[in-house]
């Protein structure tokens, strides 16, 4: 429970900064890897959950790599989004592959829905960047709640 409490506690200010400044600060993201990784490793050792830890590390790398490819290919994602994806992969991977898939898809669906609603209401222009972090965070939190914390 502690690793996911930490995740929720750090995602709230990250989302707020992304909404206000359209950036996800490395000063918050990078230490979160160490804190979340250390807490999940501790749980893995204490409860012999090595498979969960391995899945966490794999999904962390896979999501970060996938978002990096998207960032380089489209230019629409920033480095903060890539780092956030890895952090969310670390957390959601602990739970299950289903949690990773659910959290990722839900985050993107929330972002697309918000963007479409803002465009339809003419509150943003076509080329206005939309912060992705809050949507990814909300998708991940929902996945943790609905798929369980493992």
TrEMBL record:
Protein's GO biological process: methylation; signal peptide processing
UniProt xrefs under InterPro entries: Prepilin_IV_endopep_pep, Prepilin_peptidase/N-MTase
An example Gene Ontology molecular-function term: aspartic-type endopeptidase activity
A cellular-component GO term for this protein: plasma membrane
TM segment ranges: 26-46, 58-79, 85-111, 132-149
Xref: Pfam families: Peptidase_A24
Keyword vocabulary terms for this entry: Membrane, Methyltransferase, Transferase, Transmembrane, Transmembrane helix
Prepilin type IV endopeptidase peptidase domain residues: 7-111
Residue ranges that the Swiss-Prot or TrEMBL entry lists as coiled coil: none
Assigned protein family: Belongs to the peptidase A24 family.
PANTHER family attached to this UniProt entry: PREPILIN LEADER PEPTIDASE_N-METHYLTRANSFERASE-RELATED, TYPE 4 PREPILIN-LIKE PROTEINS LEADER PEPTIDE-PROCESSING ENZYME
Protein's name in the database: Leader peptidase (Prepilin peptidase) / N-methyltransferase
Organism (species): Actinokineospora terrae
